[in-house]
């Protein structure tokens, strides 16, 4: 059974990476990154819901490391601690929380509402990680006269709100149609 979980997790992580590259609906015109994709987080959310938190986190951290390899934006700071915070908040934690979808699926009662709530919750947690990163590190790019919190909410919301909506809808459709749950059996 672990071989099947490992294989499925690896395939879903690869699919998420492929979707990240080929399906950018809105490319990142922003200097510090971010883009809207066509459901690139769904395969990672799927692993968490299907196989639980352990497999979800392993897959989501692998996805985070792949994200770093192909799109790391150095922070506008000379401090090592801020560099570490960028790695944590913009990559490891931001994508790592997607693996918690299985935990939230269980907490929400494993009913028909648990899937969209889980997808919504983990993608919203990712948004919060990016907001915190904006507050702590990237706020130096805030336009003069604009508060750092507003800048971080708007900048990160410009790509994360559509990502939250897309991920929630696609995950719900695929699970409701039993497409994902059947394919993993």
Secondary-structure map:
Blueprint: H1 2-22, E1 24-26, E2 36-37, H2 42-51, H3 53-71, H4 80-96, H5 101-107, H6 114-136, H7 148-176, H8 179-183
Helix pairs in contact: 1-2, 1-3, 2-3, 2-5, 3-4, 4-6, 5-6, 6-7
What would you note in describing this structure?
Strands 1-2 form a two-stranded antiparallel sheet. The radius of gyration is 16 Å and the shape is globular. It contains 8 helices and 2 strands. The protein starts with a helix and ends with a helix. It has helices at 2-22, 42-51, 53-71, 80-96, 101-107, 114-136, 148-176, 179-183, and strands spanning 24-26, 36-37.
Helix content: over 70%
Terminal-residue CA separation: 11 Å
What gross morphology would you assign? Answer: globular
- Average pLDDT, all residues: 87
Key phrases:
single chain; 2 strands; 185 residues; 8 helices; mainly alpha
How would you summarize this macromolecular structure in one to three sentences?
This protein is mainly alpha-helical.
